[in-house]
Each structure stands twice: as C-alpha cells, then as structure tokens.
Amino acid sequence: MHALTLSTLAAALFASATFAHTDCKSVDASVIKHTGISTGVEEKHDGIRLYIAKPDNSSIRAKENPTSAIVYLTDVFGIELVENRLLADSFARAGYLTIAPDLFNNEHASGDINVPGFNTSAFLARHGPDVTDPIIASTINHLRTAYGIKKIGLTGYCFGGRYSFRFLGAGKGGDAGYAAHPSLLENGEIEAIKGPAAIGAAETDGMMSPARRSEIEALLAKGSAPWQVNLYSGTNHGFGVRANISDPEQLAGKEEAFLQAVRWFDRHLSRPDFILRPAVDEDRDACYTIHRVAMYDVVKATFGWDEEDQIARWNSEWDPSEFQIVVVDGRMIGSIDVVDRTNDILLSGIELEPAFQGRGIGSALIGKLQAKAAQRGVPLVLGVFEANPRARALYERLGFKEFHREGIKALMRWEPDVVKKG
Ligand SMILES: *[C@@H]1O[C@H](CO)[C@@H](O)[C@H](O)[C@H]1NC(C)=O
Ligand SMILES: *[C@@H]1O[C@H](CO)[C@@H](O)[C@H](O)[C@H]1NC(C)=O
Ligand SMILES: *[C@@H]1O[C@H](CO)[C@@H](O)[C@H](O)[C@H]1NC(C)=O
C-alpha cells in the first residue's frame, strides 16, 4: 500500500520533471560592439542614474531565461564612457537585461586611477564601500521589484570588479559574479563569497600582479563556491572595457573575456535541466557521497560528524523506494527523499551537490511536490535544522511555515488552499 502510493508519486514526479531545455543558442563575438553609438536608455531610480540595456524582444535567449539579469559595475570612468555603455549593450544582445548604475554620483574619474595627476586616494575615499554598496544594493532591489528578476549576475571591471565579489557575500543578493582585472579586491571579500566567481585577468596589471593572482586563486580554491580564473596574453589592466581593438591580441582578449562572463552567467544563472529517476540499490554509495558533501556542515554543527555512525545509519535506513535520483547531463547530482503518507506528504530530504545548490533545482522539485500535495488536498511537511538557515530561507520563500519545534529541528508545513478533511 505504502509502496504503491509511493510509486504513483514517483511516476507523477518523473513524468512532470523533464523541464524545457534552456537550449540557449550559444553566443559568439558577433553580439559585441566596440565602437559606435550605444542603444540603451538612462533612467533615474532612488536618486541613482541607471544605464539600462534591454534585450531585443525577439531574443530567444532572453525568452528562455527571463528572470535573470546582470548588474554592470563600471571602472572609474563610469557610465559616461561609451565603451562601458557598449559593453552593457552587448550583454543585452547576449540575452540579459543589463543595468549599469552610476557608481560615482555624477563625478566619475577623468583619467585612470594609476595615471599621475589623478588624486586616487581622494577619489577612493569619496567612493568607498560605504557609499558604493548602497548604490548596488538599490539597483539589485530595483531589478527584483520592478522587473521580476530572480537571479542576479554581477559583472565588474577594475573598480567595479571588487564589488562583483562583495555582492556574492551572504545575503548580498548576487547569484554569480564576474570580474575583469579587479582593483583593490581584499582577501576577506574573497573568503566571504557564497556564489560562483570568475575572473578575467590581464597579462600586465599593476593592480593584480602574477603573485597577487596566485593568492587570489588560492583563496578561491579554499572556498566552496565554483570559480574560474582566465588569463589573456597581450592584455593590460582595463582591457575588458578599453582594449586597443586595433591590436588583434587585445581585441581577442576583450572578446574572449566578454564571452567568458556570458558563459559563466549562462551556467550559473539558469536552472540546469534535470530529470528524476527512481533510485535503485546500487545508488546507495553514490547517494551517501552526496549526502556527505551536502550535509557535512549542518550535521557537524548540530551533532558533530561521526563518519562511522553516519555510514551505519545510512546503510540501515536508506530505502531506495523512497528516493528519486536527480540527474543532470546523465550524471547523478542529488537525491530527493519523499514519503507519501495518509494525511500529508513528507519531504524527508533534498540533497544536492554544492555546485548545483541555489540554482533553482530545489525550488523546482518542491514546486512539483506542492502541486502534488494540492492535488491530494494534503499539506507538505519537512524538517530543517537550526544550523541550516539557507535551506530554511528557501522553504520560507516557498511558503512553508514552522508549526512545531523539536529542539534544534523545526518542522515546517506548506498547505494548499483547499485541505481535504478526513
Ligand atoms: C518588438 O518590438 C518592436 C519595436 O520595439 C515592436 O514593433 C514589436 O511589436 C515587438 N514585438 C513583440 C512580439 O512584442
Ligand atoms: C589628494 O587628496 C588628499 C585628501 O583629499 C589630500 O590630502 C592630498 O593632499 C591630495 N594629494 C594631492 C597630490 O593633491
Ligand atoms: C593600438 O594597436 C595598434 C596595432 O598594434 C598600434 O599601432 C597602436 O599604436 C596602438 N594604440 C595605442 C594607443 O597604443
């Protein structure tokens, strides 16, 4: 009886869980414009000037990923510099709504900050994180509220590159970051990132020497977020925006760096296509491996991680009839454990490899279960540990409310509009 309802649920999930393929037509350098007239518009919001570049309404890529957008963080030349506007337009042609806020309150730099005669310390003192962070936070908020954007990519250049990292910190609102030749990036800012970060580095860069680049790579490697550092030969600091496009090597570097950013956002701002399949006995060890990476921190903070005990529990309690395997590109990347009970549906666990967390898979899986629960007219319940605020925040966003507490574990419930009594 139990097995029967479960396999019915599994079949329903299986049938409905093959989502439209993102089928992103891949982008090439033809979307990039280096010279000419910019095509975006300027608007003022919250006292901040915004340069806004929108995808053409026929953009297939934009239609396939309509809830992702890019915040473009300029170098010290600001949104006045036509190369910045043109590059923002290029992101729009690549399918992303792109907003570049004026980071400098109308007083962008007239020369590069490492050029003699420019009072760098005075400029930077006037435009530190205390005044720059709120401008970016307001822009992100505007994208979410006025445009219904759910996933934010930050692309930053020189001065702006540092802020791509800052906004990948916990609760800062960025979902993926890219920085070309970032200036003034601090170790603590790298250590604090919670999302995927990529860097396009210049061969010759006074703001990021080879030694500094190695340090940055080591810090990225120590963290848990996916990262990438690409180095472009023949390029100098600033090339992502202001390469000498008469020089073929610099031109190629600028174009490749742009495509690097677009591909990074394609990968991390859209939900990967996945399918579900029923688990079989042979999946047990692979599921444990994912359980270990997905839950290690939470379990360690809650009970302490005892490997032998974890394995023993897993082997005695793991029941393939409750599990579905989440598969991306033919590879297992997680599992979902669901028990269909008489009076409710218990979501006993969702465990995904860290690289696939925060990318919409969990929400999509829960959305399907909510639809199933609504169809049955029963609540969907789950438990979440205090040490897992990120999961809790997701459940709250999806409408779950705490109804009971067992010490360090909260039980949460989502109820459909119509609950069948009985
Ligand atoms: C796309 O935009 C053009 C011009 O802005 C407009 O004429 C056209 O009707 C739009 N098409 C759609 C499908 O919205
Ligand atoms: C640069 O600005 C700082 C602070 O505003 C000032 O103390 C300093 O004298 C200036 N330096 C030059 C070379 O003008
Ligand atoms: C740009 O590159 C071209 C071709 O290599 C070179 O002739 C020119 O001097 C460069 N311009 C600047 C400003 O460096």
UniProtKB/TrEMBL annotation:
<dbReference type="GO" id="GO:0016787">
    <property type="term" value="F:hydrolase activity"/>
</dbReference>
<dbReference type="GO" id="GO:0016747">
    <property type="term" value="F:acyltransferase activity, transferring groups other than amino-acyl groups"/>
</dbReference>
<dbReference type="Pfam" id="PF01738">
    <property type="entry name" value="DLH"/>
</dbReference>
<keyword id="KW-0732">Signal</keyword>
<dbReference type="Pfam" id="PF00583">
    <property type="entry name" value="Acetyltransf_1"/>
</dbReference>
<feature type="domain" description="N-acetyltransferase">
    <location>
        <begin position="274"/>
        <end position="417"/>
    </location>
</feature>
<protein>
    <submittedName>
        <fullName>Acyl-CoA N-acyltransferase</fullName>
    </submittedName>
</protein>
<feature type="signal peptide">
    <location>
        <begin position="1"/>
        <end position="20"/>
    </location>
</feature>
<dbReference type="InterPro" id="IPR000182">
    <property type="entry name" value="GNAT_dom"/>
</dbReference>
<dbReference type="InterPro" id="IPR016181">
    <property type="entry name" value="Acyl_CoA_acyltransferase"/>
</dbReference>
<dbReference type="InterPro" id="IPR002925">
    <property type="entry name" value="Dienelactn_hydro"/>
</dbReference>
<dbReference type="InterPro" id="IPR029058">
    <property type="entry name" value="AB_hydrolase_fold"/>
</dbReference>
